[in-house]
Amino acid sequence: MHYLITGGTGFIGGALIDALVADGHRATVSTRQSLADQSGCRYIADLAEIPADTRFDAVVNLAGASLAGSRWTRRYKQEIVASRLDTTREVVALCRRLDQRPGVLLSASAIGYYGHHGDELLDEDSTGTPGFSRTLCLDWENAALEAVQLGIRVCLLRLGVVLDRDGGAMVEMARPFRFGVANWLGSGRQWLSWVHRQDVVAAIGFLQDREDLSGPFNITAPEPVTSRGFCDAMKKHRRTLVTAAVPAPVMRLLVGEMADELLLNGQRVAPARLQAAGFEFQYPRLDGALADILAE
Fold this sequence. Notes:
Elements: E1 2-6, H1 11-22, E2 26-30, E3 41-44, E4 58-61, H2 74-97, E5 104-110, E6 121-122, H3 132-145, E7 153-159, E8 161-163, H4 170-178, E9 181-185, E10 191-192, E11 194-196, H5 197-209, E12 215-219, E13 225-226, H6 227-235, E14 242-246, H7 248-255, H8 257-263, E15 268-269, H9 272-276, H10 286-293
Parallel strand pairs: 1-2, 1-4, 2-3, 4-5, 5-7, 6-15, 7-12, 8-11, 9-14
Antiparallel strand pairs: 10-13
Helix pairs in contact: 1-5, 2-3, 7-8
Protein backbone atom coordinates (compact mmCIF):
# COMPACT_ATOMS: atom_id res chain seq x y z
CA MET A 1 0.00 0.00 0.00
CA HIS A 2 1.02 3.60 -0.58
CA TYR A 3 0.59 6.08 2.29
CA LEU A 4 0.80 9.86 2.29
CA ILE A 5 1.94 11.10 5.70
CA THR A 6 2.15 14.66 6.99
CA GLY A 7 4.13 15.21 10.17
CA GLY A 8 6.04 12.05 9.32
CA THR A 9 9.29 13.21 10.90
CA GLY A 10 7.67 13.76 14.30
CA PHE A 11 7.49 11.55 17.38
CA ILE A 12 4.53 9.49 16.14
CA GLY A 13 5.17 9.82 12.43
CA GLY A 14 8.70 8.44 12.59
CA ALA A 15 7.56 5.31 14.40
CA LEU A 16 4.64 4.89 12.00
CA ILE A 17 6.87 5.10 8.94
CA ASP A 18 9.30 2.56 10.38
CA ALA A 19 6.40 0.15 10.95
CA LEU A 20 4.90 0.68 7.49
CA VAL A 21 8.18 0.22 5.64
CA ALA A 22 8.99 -2.86 7.71
CA ASP A 23 5.66 -4.33 6.59
CA GLY A 24 6.49 -3.68 2.92
CA HIS A 25 4.40 -0.53 2.37
CA ARG A 26 5.50 2.70 0.68
CA ALA A 27 5.29 6.16 2.21
CA THR A 28 5.40 9.65 0.74
CA VAL A 29 6.18 12.06 3.57
CA SER A 30 5.51 15.79 3.54
CA THR A 31 8.11 17.62 5.64
CA ARG A 32 9.92 20.95 5.87
CA GLN A 33 13.18 19.14 6.56
CA SER A 34 15.60 18.39 3.75
CA LEU A 35 15.92 14.62 3.85
CA ALA A 36 17.24 12.06 1.38
CA ASP A 37 14.79 9.43 0.20
CA GLN A 38 15.13 6.00 1.77
CA SER A 39 14.01 2.54 0.80
CA GLY A 40 10.22 2.60 0.76
CA CYS A 41 10.06 6.26 1.80
CA ARG A 42 10.06 9.43 -0.30
CA TYR A 43 10.21 12.94 1.20
CA ILE A 44 8.61 16.00 -0.36
CA ALA A 45 8.57 19.64 0.74
CA ASP A 46 5.13 20.61 -0.58
CA LEU A 47 1.92 18.72 -1.31
CA ALA A 48 1.72 20.74 -4.53
CA GLU A 49 4.59 18.59 -5.84
CA ILE A 50 2.28 15.57 -6.00
CA PRO A 51 0.93 14.90 -9.53
CA ALA A 52 -2.82 14.38 -9.91
CA ASP A 53 -2.34 10.83 -11.18
CA THR A 54 -0.59 9.70 -7.95
CA ARG A 55 -2.46 6.99 -6.10
CA PHE A 56 -2.55 6.85 -2.33
CA ASP A 57 -4.38 4.11 -0.47
CA ALA A 58 -4.45 6.10 2.77
CA VAL A 59 -3.51 9.52 4.13
CA VAL A 60 -2.28 9.97 7.71
CA ASN A 61 -2.34 13.62 8.77
CA LEU A 62 -0.14 14.17 11.86
CA ALA A 63 1.29 17.63 11.19
CA GLY A 64 1.24 20.31 13.88
CA ALA A 65 3.57 22.46 15.97
CA SER A 66 4.26 21.03 19.43
CA LEU A 67 1.86 22.27 22.09
CA ALA A 68 4.78 22.31 24.51
CA GLY A 69 7.29 23.70 22.04
CA SER A 70 7.25 27.22 23.45
CA ARG A 71 5.48 29.48 25.91
CA TRP A 72 1.95 30.20 24.72
CA THR A 73 2.38 33.72 23.47
CA ARG A 74 -0.24 35.07 21.12
CA ARG A 75 2.12 34.48 18.23
CA TYR A 76 2.89 30.87 19.19
CA LYS A 77 -0.78 30.05 19.67
CA GLN A 78 -1.37 31.32 16.13
CA GLU A 79 1.41 28.98 14.94
CA ILE A 80 -0.17 26.04 16.80
CA VAL A 81 -3.49 26.70 15.06
CA ALA A 82 -2.12 27.45 11.60
CA SER A 83 0.21 24.44 11.53
CA ARG A 84 -2.79 22.16 12.02
CA LEU A 85 -5.60 23.83 10.12
CA ASP A 86 -3.56 24.95 7.11
CA THR A 87 -1.99 21.53 6.60
CA THR A 88 -5.32 19.73 7.01
CA ARG A 89 -6.96 22.03 4.46
CA GLU A 90 -4.04 21.43 2.08
CA VAL A 91 -4.49 17.68 2.51
CA VAL A 92 -8.19 17.91 1.66
CA ALA A 93 -7.40 20.15 -1.33
CA LEU A 94 -4.91 17.56 -2.58
CA CYS A 95 -7.48 14.79 -2.22
CA ARG A 96 -9.91 16.90 -4.23
CA ARG A 97 -7.54 17.25 -7.20
CA LEU A 98 -6.27 13.65 -7.28
CA ASP A 99 -7.59 11.56 -10.16
CA GLN A 100 -8.18 8.71 -7.73
CA ARG A 101 -8.96 9.65 -4.17
CA PRO A 102 -7.57 7.74 -1.18
CA GLY A 103 -9.86 5.38 0.66
CA VAL A 104 -9.28 6.85 4.10
CA LEU A 105 -7.97 9.96 5.84
CA LEU A 106 -6.70 9.31 9.35
CA SER A 107 -6.36 12.76 10.86
CA ALA A 108 -4.85 13.64 14.22
CA SER A 109 -6.77 15.47 16.91
CA ALA A 110 -6.39 15.36 20.69
CA ILE A 111 -8.36 14.69 23.85
CA GLY A 112 -8.15 18.41 24.50
CA TYR A 113 -11.32 18.31 22.37
CA TYR A 114 -13.29 17.63 25.58
CA GLY A 115 -11.94 20.51 27.66
CA HIS A 116 -11.88 20.10 31.45
CA HIS A 117 -14.34 17.72 33.14
CA GLY A 118 -12.72 16.87 36.46
CA ASP A 119 -13.20 13.20 37.34
CA GLU A 120 -15.90 12.52 34.72
CA LEU A 121 -15.08 9.54 32.49
CA LEU A 122 -15.23 10.69 28.87
CA ASP A 123 -15.96 8.72 25.72
CA GLU A 124 -16.32 9.87 22.12
CA ASP A 125 -19.90 11.05 22.70
CA SER A 126 -19.00 13.32 25.62
CA THR A 127 -19.55 17.04 25.26
CA GLY A 128 -16.80 19.65 25.42
CA THR A 129 -16.18 22.62 27.69
CA PRO A 130 -14.75 25.92 26.36
CA GLY A 131 -11.03 26.55 26.13
CA PHE A 132 -8.19 27.02 23.65
CA SER A 133 -7.59 23.27 23.23
CA ARG A 134 -11.29 22.57 22.72
CA THR A 135 -11.60 25.23 20.00
CA LEU A 136 -8.37 24.10 18.33
CA CYS A 137 -9.42 20.44 18.16
CA LEU A 138 -12.97 21.25 17.03
CA ASP A 139 -11.72 23.38 14.13
CA TRP A 140 -9.01 20.82 13.30
CA GLU A 141 -11.54 17.98 13.12
CA ASN A 142 -14.02 20.02 11.08
CA ALA A 143 -11.28 20.78 8.54
CA ALA A 144 -10.57 17.04 8.17
CA LEU A 145 -14.26 16.16 7.89
CA GLU A 146 -14.46 18.19 4.68
CA ALA A 147 -12.97 15.08 3.03
CA VAL A 148 -16.22 13.20 3.72
CA GLN A 149 -17.84 15.26 0.95
CA LEU A 150 -15.26 13.77 -1.43
CA GLY A 151 -16.38 10.25 -0.58
CA ILE A 152 -13.38 9.61 1.68
CA ARG A 153 -13.73 7.75 4.96
CA VAL A 154 -12.40 9.93 7.79
CA CYS A 155 -11.13 8.72 11.17
CA LEU A 156 -10.32 11.36 13.78
CA LEU A 157 -7.49 10.32 16.11
CA ARG A 158 -8.11 11.95 19.49
CA LEU A 159 -4.68 11.36 20.93
CA GLY A 160 -3.85 11.31 24.62
CA VAL A 161 -0.37 11.87 26.06
CA VAL A 162 1.84 9.61 23.96
CA LEU A 163 4.68 7.92 25.85
CA ASP A 164 7.86 6.22 24.67
CA ARG A 165 11.54 6.28 25.44
CA ASP A 166 13.06 8.60 22.86
CA GLY A 167 10.89 11.69 22.74
CA GLY A 168 7.49 13.19 23.37
CA ALA A 169 6.18 14.09 26.82
CA MET A 170 8.19 11.34 28.53
CA VAL A 171 11.43 13.29 28.19
CA GLU A 172 10.26 16.05 30.55
CA MET A 173 8.07 13.83 32.72
CA ALA A 174 10.94 11.47 33.52
CA ARG A 175 13.65 14.11 33.94
CA PRO A 176 13.22 14.76 37.72
CA PHE A 177 13.21 11.02 38.43
CA ARG A 178 16.65 10.70 36.83
CA PHE A 179 17.93 12.94 39.63
CA GLY A 180 16.10 11.04 42.37
CA VAL A 181 13.19 13.48 42.62
CA ALA A 182 9.67 12.06 42.40
CA ASN A 183 7.10 14.75 41.76
CA TRP A 184 3.61 15.55 40.56
CA LEU A 185 2.06 18.80 39.39
CA GLY A 186 -0.34 20.93 41.40
CA SER A 187 -2.82 18.90 43.41
CA GLY A 188 -1.82 15.67 41.68
CA ARG A 189 -5.51 14.79 41.29
CA GLN A 190 -5.77 15.81 37.64
CA TRP A 191 -6.08 12.95 35.18
CA LEU A 192 -3.44 11.84 32.70
CA SER A 193 -4.89 9.89 29.79
CA TRP A 194 -1.75 8.35 28.36
CA VAL A 195 -0.98 5.82 25.63
CA HIS A 196 2.16 3.94 24.56
CA ARG A 197 3.41 5.01 21.13
CA GLN A 198 3.38 1.39 19.92
CA ASP A 199 -0.36 1.27 20.59
CA VAL A 200 -0.85 4.52 18.65
CA VAL A 201 0.87 3.02 15.62
CA ALA A 202 -1.16 -0.19 15.99
CA ALA A 203 -4.42 1.75 16.33
CA ILE A 204 -3.70 3.70 13.12
CA GLY A 205 -3.16 0.41 11.28
CA PHE A 206 -6.30 -1.07 12.82
CA LEU A 207 -8.46 1.89 11.73
CA GLN A 208 -6.93 1.90 8.26
CA ASP A 209 -7.85 -1.76 7.78
CA ARG A 210 -11.41 -1.48 9.11
CA GLU A 211 -13.44 0.02 6.31
CA ASP A 212 -16.56 -0.02 8.50
CA LEU A 213 -15.08 2.46 11.01
CA SER A 214 -15.14 6.26 10.79
CA GLY A 215 -15.53 9.33 12.99
CA PRO A 216 -13.76 10.10 16.27
CA PHE A 217 -11.67 7.58 18.22
CA ASN A 218 -9.99 8.19 21.56
CA ILE A 219 -6.42 6.91 21.25
CA THR A 220 -5.72 6.45 24.95
CA ALA A 221 -4.93 3.46 27.14
CA PRO A 222 -7.93 1.91 28.93
CA GLU A 223 -6.61 2.85 32.38
CA PRO A 224 -5.80 6.56 32.79
CA VAL A 225 -4.02 7.66 35.96
CA THR A 226 -3.77 10.85 37.97
CA SER A 227 -0.61 12.94 38.08
CA ARG A 228 0.03 11.52 41.56
CA GLY A 229 -0.61 8.01 40.21
CA PHE A 230 1.97 8.54 37.47
CA CYS A 231 4.47 9.59 40.13
CA ASP A 232 3.77 6.46 42.18
CA ALA A 233 4.15 4.24 39.10
CA MET A 234 7.47 5.85 38.17
CA LYS A 235 8.80 5.27 41.70
CA LYS A 236 8.46 1.53 41.12
CA HIS A 237 10.92 1.78 38.24
CA ARG A 238 13.29 4.53 39.41
CA ARG A 239 14.97 4.94 42.79
CA THR A 240 13.97 8.27 44.31
CA LEU A 241 15.25 10.23 47.30
CA VAL A 242 12.68 13.04 47.47
CA THR A 243 8.93 13.12 46.80
CA ALA A 244 7.21 16.48 46.42
CA ALA A 245 4.60 18.40 44.47
CA VAL A 246 5.35 21.25 42.06
CA PRO A 247 2.89 23.93 43.25
CA ALA A 248 0.38 25.25 40.75
CA PRO A 249 1.56 28.88 41.09
CA VAL A 250 5.10 27.79 40.20
CA MET A 251 3.87 26.01 37.07
CA ARG A 252 1.88 29.08 36.02
CA LEU A 253 4.93 31.25 36.52
CA LEU A 254 7.13 28.89 34.49
CA VAL A 255 4.91 28.17 31.50
CA GLY A 256 1.97 30.58 31.68
CA GLU A 257 -1.40 29.67 30.15
CA MET A 258 -0.17 26.23 29.13
CA ALA A 259 -0.05 25.22 32.80
CA ASP A 260 -3.83 25.42 33.31
CA GLU A 261 -4.68 24.21 29.83
CA LEU A 262 -2.46 21.12 29.71
CA LEU A 263 -0.69 20.39 33.01
CA LEU A 264 -2.81 21.34 36.02
CA ASN A 265 -6.04 20.05 34.47
CA GLY A 266 -6.64 16.96 32.41
CA GLN A 267 -9.20 14.59 31.00
CA ARG A 268 -10.16 11.11 32.16
CA VAL A 269 -10.71 9.47 28.79
CA ALA A 270 -11.77 5.98 27.74
CA PRO A 271 -11.04 4.46 24.29
CA ALA A 272 -14.64 3.28 24.08
CA ARG A 273 -15.05 3.04 20.30
CA LEU A 274 -11.67 1.37 19.72
CA GLN A 275 -12.37 -1.30 22.30
CA ALA A 276 -15.92 -1.83 21.06
CA ALA A 277 -14.46 -2.45 17.60
CA GLY A 278 -12.16 -5.14 19.01
CA PHE A 279 -8.83 -3.32 19.25
CA GLU A 280 -6.52 -4.82 21.88
CA PHE A 281 -3.91 -2.65 23.57
CA GLN A 282 -0.44 -4.10 24.00
CA TYR A 283 0.04 -1.78 26.97
CA PRO A 284 -3.31 -1.27 28.72
CA ARG A 285 -1.71 -0.46 32.12
CA LEU A 286 0.90 2.13 32.99
CA ASP A 287 3.19 -0.25 34.91
CA GLY A 288 3.64 -2.41 31.84
CA ALA A 289 4.21 0.58 29.58
CA LEU A 290 6.83 2.05 31.94
CA ALA A 291 8.59 -1.30 32.26
CA ASP A 292 9.06 -1.29 28.49
CA ILE A 293 9.91 2.40 28.14
CA LEU A 294 12.38 2.53 31.04
CA ALA A 295 14.09 -0.80 30.38
CA GLU A 296 17.88 -0.44 30.30
